[in-house]
Structure formats: C-alpha cells, structure tokens
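Methods — Computational structure assignment.
A single polypeptide chain was analysed. Its primary sequence is given first, followed by the predicted tertiary structure written as structure tokens.
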Amino acid sequence: MAFTAIPTPALADECVQEKAVYGDMENAYELRFEPIGSEAAAASNKFKFTVRNTPIVADGVVMRSDDQLRANGLIMFNCPEGDVTGADLRACTVWQGMIYASDVTGNISVLPAEGAGAAARLVLPALGPSIRESSIWGKGKATVAPWDVLTLKGCGE
C-alpha cells in the first residue's frame, strides 16, 4: 500500500510561495519556486521544474492577468536566447496554461503572490499530456506523465 503525505495547513502557512516545493504522486517531478527579484517585471512568480533522475531542469514563469485573478504559467526547456520566432518558442514550450492553487480542503483560488503563504496544492491542467508531447519526453528524459495536481512537500531556502 502506498502512502502519500498530505500537506498540513501549518506547512502551507509557514512557507511563503517563493520558497514552496511541490511534487507529483509518483515523485517523478519537482516544481520549486524561487524569488522573482527585479529581473522580470512582467512575471509574478518563477520556478524550476525538474524531472527527477534525469538532467532535465526546465524554467517556469507565472504572469498575472490584468485583473490579478488569473495566473498564466509557462514551462520552457532549452529555449533559444535573443531574437526568436513564435515557432522557436512553441518548440521549447513544455506546458502553458492557468495555474490554480488549492488549500487542503479543495478550495480553488489564484496562485499566491510572493510573500504570501504557499498553496497546499497546485493544479496545472493537462500537464501530463503536454509533457508527453514535448521535448522533455522520451528515452533518457521523462517517461512518466504526472497528474495535474502537485502537492506541497517542503519549503526551500
């Protein structure tokens, strides 16, 4: 029988969003938020998305809608720098969509901003199917597609 740790409300309350670390049910992926700093004014959050037991580390950003009620996320891997085309960006985009936050009772809300308490769970709709169609899928890369829900498993430094 498998045991899945359920985040305690205290962990979510003690950890701020920019230090939150999330994982999937199979422990195949990790999403680790980082402070945004002053480098990207358009982004409200940033994170690293790793495929465990591989060298893959993808970059993620979150951009808020004008009304601040939606959080649009992007996960990108090996994107070219400088002048790039839309085709270049599509080729390196692993996943794009809304990121939703959930508390331990299942109430859905917008992803917390930096400085706010971390969400107990994240919902990234169609994450698994997107990964299977991306450049991080295949031999020596990702071979397990995650569910859409990632659970708070720790707080980084």
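Note: Confidence is low (pLDDT under 50) at residues 1-9.
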